[in-house]
Amino acid sequence: MTEHDPPTPALQRAAPAPLWRAMQAFLELLFSLFGDPSWIAARGVMGRRDKALMRPWLRAGEAFLRRLLLIEAFALAPDMKIAAPKRRAHKSRLRRPITFYPDKPEDWRVSFRLFPTARRRSRAKRRMQRVRRPRIDLPNFLLPPKRAASEFAHLQAPLHRLPRAASLNTPCATATGKTMDRNPVDPWPMAERLEALRRACVDPRACARRLARTLHRDERRAFRVLRREPPHIANLFGAQDFGRCNAIVASRRRGWDARPRADTS
User: Fold this and answer.
1) Which neighbouring-strand residues pair with 185?
2) Cross-strand partners of 172
3) What whole-number distance in Å separates Cα of residue 6 and Cα of residue 10?
4) With 177 labelled, which of 88, 150, 187, 249 sits at a CA distance of 20 to 30 A?
5) Which residues contact 189 (CB under 8 A, 6 or more apart)?
């Protein structure tokens, strides 16, 4: 719980208390590094460098929280009664625009993303994996004439003579003297992810029940929360806490797999 959250009664949780305290401490660290969700959304724009710096930290917190929620789901699943899904008649609804304000993050419609989406391949990797066309050798009389490099010497300026703002890796200077990226991005997606992470950490019961229902209906989809993360993601949170959480999840999973199953024959 952070200083921005109202006091809530202690919740009975299946995961060890030190792991939940580590999650709360990491959330406070995110708030101190990048600000609270309302401040991030109120910025209006966000530099690409700031987003690239914030993304792995958010990913580390989300990965750790998913494992904690799976431990909670293992404790809830045995006593949960799963009813058959009801078919509801399709009703057409009129779309109404809803306005959200940065200073009221409690009114945002956000939910914690339990199941991580598959990472998209970069454009360069997709281009390399395409089927290459066979090379066609043209005769020399159809090829453009080759020119010497000296003919283009007047177009090549030394790097030390280029202005500082001409570098693609250097941010632009504004009229106020501050620097900003050339292509800023919308900060709302990152603010919403941080707000969803905060809500799930403060009260994980809804997410745990949802994951427990998924364990009964589709185990393979439920275990997608255990997607292997790169070592640097675990190191951002803490390799020791991450390893301990993974060990507890593996132990609870073995108990879940060894449970007596109902005879459906």
Assistant:
1) 46
2) 180
3) 12
4) 187
5) none
The model's pLDDT over 100-109, given as tens digits with 9 standing for 90+, comes to 777 888 888 8
Q: Which of 259, 236, 202 shows the shortest CA–CA distance to 53?
A: 236
Contact 1, 24 (CB under 8 A): yes
* Tokens at 232, concatenated: 């640097």
Q: Are 86 and 44 in contact (CB under 8 A)?
A: no
How far, in Å, are 43, 65, 118, 227 from residue 72 at the CA level? 36, 11, 24, 18
Helix (H, G, I), strand (E, B) or coil at 215: helix
Bridge partners of residue 102, in order along the sequence: none
Give the alpha-carbon dihedral of 172, 177, 180, 182, to 10 degrees: -20
Judge whether residue 123 has pLDDT over 80.
Answer: no
Asked if 197 and 62 count as a contact pair (C-beta separation under 8 A), the reply is yes
Q: Taking the alpha carbons of 5, 111, 86, 117 in that order, is the dihedral positive or negative?
A: negative
Quick one: which H or E segment has residue 23?
helix 17-34
In this structure, which long-range contacts are made by residues 8-13, counting pairs with CB atoms below 8 Å and at least 24 apart in sequence?
A: 8/202, 8/203, 11/203, 11/204, 11/205, 13/72, 13/204
Percent of the chain's residues with pLDDT above 90: 35
Burial of residue 250, with CB atoms counted within 10 A of its CB: 0-12 exposed, 13-18 middle, 19 or more buried = exposed
**Residues with Cβ < 8 Å from 183, sequence gap 6 or more?**
48
Contact 197, 27 (CB under 8 A): yes
Q: Can you tell me whether residue 46 is helix, strand or coil? A: strand
Q: What distance in Å separates the CA atoms of residue 199 and residue 196, rounded to the nearest whole number? A: 5
